Each structure stands twice: as structure tokens, then as C-alpha cells.
């Protein structure tokens, strides 16, 4: 990241900029002309944002917009400038509630909410379904300030702390922030085929981010889900081979926490009820590693369309309570199986031929190192709450509502938080 440049808008454009004219600011920045064009497509948006208080805008450069593939929702919004709902969703995902200067962003992740809420739905899809707005992750990567958004997207700040009046902070970024994917689309693109196929085989009456004619069950939101690796499923293959559908449903529901978006930095030594009903036991060790029952969280905090996913190295079992005292962190995953007597099978009973989103052409060939190394951090909290971690310097109190005329935007006047676990 280049050194922070705090611009004096009184010098740039006299009193109008000093009062907070975001359109004039963007016009004064040649590398933000595409963003200016998109903002101008929505009547009154520039004025609405200028009137807001305590927001942070991550502003993609022209090169960032040009690099977005045109076959993804973000690219279609950029290319088809006649879809103001898609454009509004794209822009809303770059406006964060609260003031986040570069100085408050550290190597301990902050999960902040944006103005992208469930009101953004066009004829093709909804764009997010979080209570209080979609989440993105703010974190340092060496000396760089980064934003981690959906689809394993990492955006690096190239110019930080451009101030517009007292209540708006702007950071230029080199990559457009992405929307979170529906859960089973994430599992397909990431190669977690066993979890994807297991959910299909179980025929759970739950949809993870689908709507319209494709939705066949309850579309839950604000959830946390644990994703065993393919190897984890294979390690208990003998159990899966003899399990009926009802048992498979119970096991998979045990991997879901409803109505709580729980990021790794909020974890502590607590128990939390699962969708299945039995408790999950969380453990955070002094080395910062996080565990759920006897499974280690390998890769945390994948932001989805309507929840967060954590990849783990074992399949969890609701059949018997887990005793935290029995956790052996030094043991390999093969010695920490939750199903006693299970043996490995490479050919699982549910076929990958019926994968949800099978045939999708986008895949994540490698997980970026930054995403793999952002780990849970031990905290002194006695409980677990689904809240943002790492407070902004000022919380959002603005009037950036009605970004789309008649869209029914319902932006809370303060940082939205999901229901707390006690």
C-alpha cells in the first residue's frame, strides 16, 4: 500500500468539496472515472452518499472494473449499465457502515457490514441475504490493507484515507469486491464435493441461497456452517455406507448453527446449539487454533451469500456429547474421528453425479495464502456473539438510505448484529 494521502478538498474544489460532494471528488480522480459513471447512473446516489455520516467507501479503480469477467454478476452489472438494481447492489457492497481508517485495520480480521441488504433482487437473482447488510473482511497482509469479500476475492488498498468531510473515508482498491456465493455453489467451486453430494443425498428441506423456482425448501440466512473436507468424509466411509437418509440429515444439521453469523475471531471456549439440537463445543487454544468438537478449523471465514463457512478436518457427530478435556490437538485427524470404529472408504455412497451446481465453469484452483493464514484469535470473552470484530473509529449513523428509488432499502442506523449466543 502506498503511504496514506489525506486530500484537502478545500484546496481541490473550494467550499463544495469541503461540504462533502462525492461526485466532485470522484471527478477529480481520473482513475475513478468508471466508479463515477456507475454512481451517476442511479439518480440521487451521489447526493445521498454525500449526506451520510460515518461510512467507509472502498473505491475500485478503472483497472479494477475492467478486470472483472463479464460472465459473473459483478461483471454483468458493470457491462449492462441499464440494470440499476445490479449496479446498486455492486456499489452498496463497497460502502461500509462505520469509519475504518487504515490505522484501525490490523492482522486481526475485522468483519464489517455494508449497505448491501436483501432488498437488492433483480429478475435473475438476489445479491445478499444478511440481516443488517452483507459482511466483508478487513485485514492487514504484511504492510498492505486488504478486503476479503465473496468468492475468495482479495482487494488491496492502493491509496488510503481520502477524507470527504468529517464522516466519509475513502480507500482506493485494485480489485472489485465480489458478492458471496450460495453455499453449495461455494462447495462446488472449491472442490468440497463430498459435502455438496451429501446435502443432495440427504434431501434436506433447506436451501442455501437459492430463491425463485429453483428453491425447493426453507431458505435460511444468517447461518454458520462447518464444511468437512473430502478426506474427512472418506475417513468415515464405512459409517456413511450404512447410514440411512434420516441419519445423514441429523449429521449434516449438526454442522449448521442457525441465526448466528460466527466468525473465527468471535470464538472462545463455549458450547453452542446446532440446528440439529445437540451442542457444538468450541475450543480456542493459546496458539490461536480453533476447534469445533474434535475437528480443527483449517480454513475460516468464507463469506457466503447469506452465511459464513469454516472448513474443518473431521465430520462431526451428534450421537454423543463431546468432552473438551478429551481434545488431543497433537493427534492427526485420522486419530480424532468422531465416529468410533469408522474405517476409510474412497468411494462414498452418495455419488458426485448429482452435485448441486454441477457443470459450473468457475473453480478456485488454489486457496490464496492470506485466506489460509487468517486464524482464530483467542479473546477474553466469556460468551460468543455474532458481531463485527474490531470496532470502527466511528459507527455508522448516516442517511445513506434509498440508494435505489423504490427499492425499499432498510438500513439500520447503527452497526447491525445478529442474535447473540448465550
How many beta-strand segments?
Answer: 16
Low-confidence stretches: 1-19, 378-389, 398-422
Based on the structure given, which CATH architecture of the largest domain is correct?
A: Roll
Number of helices: 13
Summed up, the domain count is: 2
- Please list the strands of the largest sheet in the order they lie side by side: 2-1-7-6-5-4-3
Distance linking N and C termini: 40 Å
Which sheet architecture does the biggest sheet show?
7 strands, mixed
CATH topology assignment of the largest domain: FAS1 domain
**Can you give the mean pLDDT?**
81
CATH top-level class of the largest domain: Mainly Beta
Summing up helix and strand content along with how strands pair, one would put the structural category as alpha+beta
Beta fraction of the residues?
A: 15-25%
Work out the radius of gyration: 22 Å
The rough form would be described as globular
CATH H level, superfamily name of the largest domain: FAS1 domain
Helix content: 10-25%
Helix-strand sequence: HHHHEHHHEEEEEEHHEEEHHHEEEEEEH
Protein name: Fasciclin-domain-containing protein
InterPro entries: Adhesion/Biosynth-related, FAS1_dom_sf, FAS1_domain
Pfam family, one: Fasciclin
Domain FAS1: 19-177, 179-316
Give a written overview of the molecule.
The chain is an alpha+beta fold and 422 residues long. The chain folds into two domains: 22-173, FAS1 domain (Roll); 183-357 and 365-371, FAS1 domain (Roll), CATH 2.30.180.10. The protein is 23% helix and 20% strand. It has 13 helices and 16 strands. The protein has helices at 9-18, 22-27, 33-40, 45-51, 62-66, 73-79, 84-92, 183-190, 193-202, 230-235, 237-242, 245-253, 369-373; strands at residues 55-60, 95-97, 110-113, 135-141, 144-149, 153-164, 168-173, 206-207, 218-219, 223-228, 256-257, 271-273, 279-284, 290-292, 295-303, 307-312. A seven-stranded mixed β-sheet has the order 2-1-7-6-5-4-3. Strand 6 and strand 7 form a beta hairpin. Helix 6 (73-79) packs across helix 7 and helix 9 crosses helix 12 (245-253). The longest helix has 10 residues, at 9-18. The radius of gyration is 22 Å and the shape is globular. It comes from Decorospora gaudefroyi. InterPro entries: Adhesion/Biosynth-related, FAS1_dom_sf, FAS1_domain. This is Fasciclin-domain-containing protein. One of its GO terms (cellular component) is fungal-type vacuole membrane. Residues 19-177, 179-316 form the FAS1 domain.
